[in-house]
Amino acid sequence: MDLQLNDPSLLQTGLFINGQWLDREITLDVTDPATGKVITSVATASAEDTEQAITAASVAFDSWKMVTAKERAAPLQRWFKLIMENHDDLAKILTAEQGKILAEAKGEIAYGANYIEWFAEEAKRIYGDTIPQPSNDRRLLCIKQPIGVVACITPWNFPNAMLTRKIAPAVAAGCTVVCKTASETPLSALALAELAKRAGIPDGVINMVVGKASIIGPTLTASPTVRKLSFTGSTEVGKILLKECAGTVKKVSMELGGNAPFIIFDDADLDATIDGLLASKYRNSGQTCVCTNRVFVQKSIEKEFSAKLVEAVESRLSIGNGFAEGVTNGPLINKGAVSTVVDLVERSVAQGACILTGGSVSELGENYYQPTILGNVTNDMPIAQEEIFGPVAPLITFETEEEVIDMANDTNVGLAAYFYSRDIGRVWRVSEQLEYGIVGINEGIISNEMAPFGGVKESGMGREGSKYGLDDYLEMKYICMGGLDS
Ligand code: NAP
After folding, report:
1. 64 confidence band (pLDDT: 50, 70, 90)
2. C-alpha distance across the termini of the chain, in Å
3. Where in the chain is the domain with CATH 3.40.309.10?
4. Which of 237, 256, 284, 288 best tests ligand 1's pocket when mutated (most atoms within 8 Å of CB)?
């Protein structure tokens, strides 16, 4: 498949280990979810290849950790610039393998690159502390040091940004990385590796392997050389990895699944709410961890709101190939993802939900699901309790603020939550009571590199982005300097 790239050499297909591109006999086809066509095939890594990548990262760490923060920042800044110079090509690769519309792919490339620029700057601010001494013969201080080799495992829904959100702080902190990208979407990651090489990031600092999770995952988690795992993906896989990491007591960061409530109080600006909900629910066809999963509408405005939402979804959303003009929603990642959505909708309808619009697989093909709204949903239905990961908005009504906070918090996960209200007292009460790591008030899209991203409960641990994002890649060392009495 010809992607008509300005620079075709960005379409890399090898393993990237110690700065070298390596071909392998066993390959994996990468398909375009919009057409089902094979884009290309990529080399897959064996356990030995993964070990080789870990060794390369370990050797590189010995010298990279000695490089000053200012010197580490320079190639990261060049990497950022190269990504922005190749913005269009990277977006085309992303749309081809992931399916999201080209405008969203461009947005993701810029969003992902911003983390690199941010952490290149932040590395220069890895401060320690001096601590008041308990007696005058000693002085106490605290320094921060890079943790070592980091394994990064990432999902397919943001094949560029989920990687840069890990690699940038790790490398800026002085760590080196071995990345395992999602099998559906390795090409965006490999293009990033090619640009990292061109930016002059030293060999072995960034390594990328693609292939079977059952081979690469356990090799990374069992390795005592790997001192940290940073994972983004499902809660289910996160729990497996947590158990595996216990064997070598690794530091872990977990960015896992969500079940975002989107609450509309009766004092909300309804037009702004519709805009926010369309963005939060239907972006990437509902396949983001911070996508709205449950829409809570105050009973008194339910009829007016649902009529406006149906009108907006039917008139403003259009599904199709992410490369086509005017399309707002691409396909889902694969047939399995569509089946999950079909099953959730069918089970909800069987329990009393009604379809207000959409509700079936599109005639465009097996990977396309219609933007859908369900009415009459209750918070105990599977569609409200499980992560939908598709373009379906279930509407649930509520009477009081207390009731909706209880319903919103009635889930084992806590990543993002949203609510719309113009009452300043309510704004503070509700934001403080929501058991979520991220709260958007009168906004549907809230993530950026300057703010901390992460969840509570089974949505994970650790934070990505912001001044806190470096902490996950640093160890704190206490130094006591004694014998100072004259
Ligand atoms: P997934 O099935 O958990 O896979 C994520 C990554 O883990 C992929 O690279 C996958 O490899 C790998 N993997 C799967 N099983 C593994 C194992 N046993 N050992 C080691 N690695 C393993 O998740 P997904 O379907 O790609 O992504 C969707 C999920 O990610 C959703 O739950 C979403 O909420 C979550 N997510 C969270 C955030 C956040 O920041 N909190 C951001 C984005 C997505 P293969 O591709 O080879 O199977």
Report:
1. very high
2. 76
3. 260-448
4. 237
